[in-house]
Design brief:
heterodimer; A: about 180 residues; alpha/beta; Glutaredoxin; seven-stranded mixed β-sheet; 5 helices; 7 strands; elongated; B: about 675 residues; alpha+beta; Four Helix Bundle (Hemerythrin (Met), subunit A); 4 domains; six-stranded antiparallel β-sheet; about 65% helix
């Protein structure tokens, strides 16, 4: 055994392995994103189950808005569906409005998906031509955008949301709103 | 039909495809562990029946992985969205060929396909060397089974493609649009896997040689064909990747030093170094330790490349979705490193070579220089690839290392390599006769000057471009000279015709002349890259229908916009007529494709490729009413030579491994004078 050689070999290999190990701790999805902190882009979308209705961003001035981009072909969306639906129910009547935004999917597929997942406590909007997705810089589904009562984007979640995250963000927004009173 | 559909439905309800796939990969995982243990014990205790059972496990795995892959393709084609992988990449709207090649379009499927290629290599290599190589062969089988066990572990664990999805989705998103936009996606990944995975075989025999203590060059001779074949596939894969990038990405380039391109390039560099340095060992008994190190590095770099593309460590256009798979790769890489280091250093005293280089002007010296350049090259690319990670670890900033760094560092190395490609074949082993050498270098030297002057006259002012043209001509003439000398000698000795003398020359020493052909291919690639990057001419123009635009010798006229609706995408294209000196020579249709599930359009540039230059049109934007369209108009000389050169490289490698009529040569170690400039 040539110890000198072994040590020099390990001397080269160890830093590379350590570096790769460090790389694994980074989140590759944490890309710099200009959206949080800036005014939410305006939109006007048809409601999936009431196509004659149109929802606009400005209709919800003064309310906290949670927009969840999803699709029935998206497997990760299944994991957050219950959380979103239950949180929406829990905050009903507190000036918090949830919308699902259907991304590259047909309303028929979406409806049977919701039925299979056991229903949904908030409505869905149809983003035809994925115009809104482009405006909101969507990188994929699921993504969730939280908008303050003043119309500022407060948070953009790439990937699945957690209940803790939703509650923290919503509670702090509602607290700021009620504080001056 | 209803009955058949009913049966299909029934099978799907039971999840038979999933169960079959799961059973196959789980059994393969178990068998690879068993085979590994049986092979090691069999070799240690000299128990032939244990060794035979280990081999049987290797053969069975090939069958099992074939079954698992067939099951997956069946699930994809029948749109069985209850299978996890199908739900992830399948789509009812995709054309059939896209559905089939979806097998390797995402993480889990690509590992499944990798497993198939690995199991096939393992089975065939084990079969061909059975009962011939003793403990070394058995340890090699054990090593291949150990590598297989790792990949099968991924398949039953973090990258299981046969997971169950419930409730079953109605449809899926389809594979990444960039991947379904060009037929080369059906070609590039399998070639890459054949190349990458093929490097496992020489690595396994190197480990086998070290474990069995057979440190002569038997392992090298036994695996030469495998190494060259894997190298050929890897070369073709890199070429196909470049071609795909040229035909799809719309910027008219073919190489961007993207981390994943680098990942495929690094093992190619070390493998090319290895192909040359083994000759020094075979001839002179030198570099034994180095060769073992090189092949281990090559194998490690293939695994590192796979790790980089699949762990999300480095962001890249190629990146697969990330998952917990990274940590598995990291542990695996550490184990290989540790085992190889222990084996190499444990044997280092036995690997010392008695031979020394006799003269500085000899082929050995050129091979040493070649290895030095390739090693520096590999480290440079590795540094550039990992640097963003270093910067983030040390200074917490996100940086990207782009083409300027890589070009500045590697262009001089490429020029040096071109010079060595020329001078290597001309120099004899041991020591050159200076008089003869001078005579041999007169014509190539003249070619160097002529090409450099021609390059200058054509407008090239960059010193490296002129050097590249010069060395390319130099190297081309040097390599052609070797054919001329060989053919002339045959004609004189046997009175053969030119054609049959050339044919017999190849047949008699296919390895050597195949190698020279690969050199010529590489020179073609080098000339193509230098010319297309030096004389590239790019324009951007917004045209109204009927309007013309001139670029170089081409005049283009934008005729009209058209649109086509396909199940999986919507395409908008432009009809563009191409004229040379008022004569219409063709029509091009660059287009933009809008895929479901992706916001940005994926371009399909239109290319008119000729021997001397390419006209490359890319549709950048258009008015919806068709009133105008914006194009990138690129004229790039000699791009065709890059692809043609790639095929010549592969052809050279193929000629080098084909079984040809062998001369009754004795071990060249004993009779070095028998062949003055042999390989």
């Amino acid at each position: 055994m040539n110890w000198k050689r072994s040590l020099s070999g390990i001397g080269v290999a160890l830093p590379i392995i350590a570096l790769l190990g460090y790389g694994l701790t980074l989140d590759p999805r944490s890309l710099p994103n200009a959206l949080p902190g800036s005014p939410a882009p305006e939109f006007a979308l048809a409601v999936m189950d009431v196509p004659s209705d149109t929802v606009r961003l400005r209709d919800h001035a003064g309310q906290v808005l949670v927009l969840n981009f999803w699709a029935s072909w998206c497997l990760e969306c299944r994991h957050e569906h219950r959380i979103l639906s239950e949180t929406a129910e829990a905050y009903a009547g507190k000036d918090v409005v949830f919308y699902g935004v259907l991304y590259n999917d047909s309303p028929d597929n979406a409806r049977s998906w919701i039925q299979e997942m056991g229903g949904q406590s908030y409505s869905n909007l149809l983003d035809n031509g994925t115009r809104m997705a482009i405006d909101y810089g969507l990188t994929g589904v699921p993504e969730t955008v939280i908008i303050s009562p003043e119309g500022q984007v407060v948070h953009k979640q790439i990937g699945v949301v957690t209940e803790a995250l939703l509650r923290t963000k919503l509670d702090s927004l509602l607290a700021v709103r009620t504080a001056p009173q | 039909m209803p009955e058949a559909a009913g049966r299909l439905h029934f099978a799907r309800e039971l999840g038979l495809t999933r169960i079959l796939g799961l059973a196959a990969i789980t059994t393969a995982f178990g068998l690879s562990i068993y085979g590994l243990i049986a092979a090691v014990l069999g070799a240690r205790l000299q128990r032939a029946n244990l060794v035979r059972s280990a081999r049987a496990a290797a053969y069975a795995n090939a069958g099992l992985l074939a079954a698992a892959n067939v099951a997956m393709i069946y699930a994809l084609v029948t749109h069985d969205f209850s299978v996890g992988y199908v739900a992830q990449v399948g789509s009812r709207a995709s054309p059939l060929w896209v559905t089939i090649v979806s097998l390797w379009s995402a993480l889990e499927g690509s590992i499944l396909f990798w497993g198939l290629v690995l199991s096939a290599y393992t089975a065939v290599a084990t079969w061909l060397t059975r009962d011939r190589l003793g403990a070394m062969g058995t340890y090699a089988t054990a090593t291949m089974l150990a590598v297989s066990a790792f990949f099968y572990l991924l398949l039953v664990g973090p990258a299981n493609p046969f997971g169950r999805v419930f409730p079953v989705p109605i449809d899926g998103p389809g594979p990444n649009p960039l991947l379904q936009n060009h037929i080369l996606m059906a070609v590039h990944p399998p070639l890459l896997y054949l190349g990458y995975v093929g490097m496992t075989v020489p690595f396994a025999f190197a480990i086998g040689a070290m474990l069995a203590g057979r440190l002569d060059d038997v392992w090298i001779r036994e695996t030469r064909r495998w190494t060259v074949t894997a190298w050929m596939f890897l070369s073709l894969a890199i070429m196909a990747g470049m071609w795909w990038s040229y035909e799809v990405l719309g910027w008219g380039g073919y190489w961007a030093w993207d981390p994943v391109e680098n990942a495929s390039f690094m093992p190619w560099l070390t493998a090319t170094a290895f192909l040359h340095s083994v000759m020094v060992q075979e001839r002179r008994g030198m570099l034994r330790m180095w060769n073992l190190t090189l092949i281990t590095s090559t194998f490690l770099l293939t695994i590192l490349g796979t790790f980089l593309t699949r762990s999300g460590v480095i962001s890249s256009v190629h990146a697969f979705s990330e998952g917990p798979i990274g940590i598995y790769f990291l542990v695996f890489i550490s184990i290989i490193l540790l085992v190889s280091l222990v084996l190499l250093t444990g044997r280092s005293s036995e690997l010392k070579s008695e031979a020394r280089i006799d003269a500085p002007m000899s082929r050995e010296t050129v091979f040493l220089l070649n290895n030095l350049v390739f090693t520096v090259f590999t480290f440079t690319v590795l540094l550039g690839t990992l640097f963003p990670l270093v910067a983030e670890a040390v200074r917490g900033v996100k940086v990207s290392v782009g083409a300027p760094f890589f070009n500045r560092m590697t262009v001089p190395l490429c020029a040096m390599l071109l010079f060595l490609v020329g001078v290597g074949p001309v120099l004899p082993w041991r020591a050159a006769d200076m008089q003869q050498l001078k005579k041999k270098l007169v014509v190539p030297g003249a070619a160097f000057l002529i090409a450099a002057v021609l390059g200058f006259a054509a407008g090239a002012r960059n010193a490296y471009a002129l050097l590249a043209f010069g060395f390319a001509a130099f190297a081309l003439v040097c390599n052609l000279e070797e054919y001329v000398i060989g053919v002339r000698a045959r004609r004189r000795a046997h009175g053969e015709s030119l054609l049959s003398a050339t044919g017999r020359l190849f047949a008699a020493n296919n390895r050597r002349y195949g190698g020279y052909l690969a050199h010529i291919g590489l020179i073609m690639v080098a000339v193509g890259i230098t010319a297309s990057s030096t004389f590239r001419h790019e324009r951007e123009a917004t045209l109204t229908p009927g309007e013309t635009f001139q670029s170089g010798k081409y005049t283009i006229r934008f005729e009209e916009l058209w649109a086509r609706d396909e199940p999986q995408r919507f395409s908008v294209g432009a009809e563009v007529s191409v004229f040379i000196r008022d004569r219409q020579v063709g029509t091009l249709h660059p287009k933009l494709n809008y895929y479901r599930g992706r916001d940005e359009p994926v371009p399909t540039p239109a290319v008119r490729s000729r021997l001397d230059r390419d006209l490359y049109l890319n549709l950048l934007a258009f008015q919806r009413d068709g009133s105008n369209a914006t194009f990138t108009i690129l004229v790039e000389p000699m791009v065709f030579w890059i692809w043609a050169g790639g095929f010549v490289v592969a052809l050279g490698a193929l000629l080098g491994v084909l079984p040809m009529r062998r001369r009754a040569t004795i071990n060249p170690m004993r009779k070095p004078a028998a062949e003055p400039a042999g390989v």
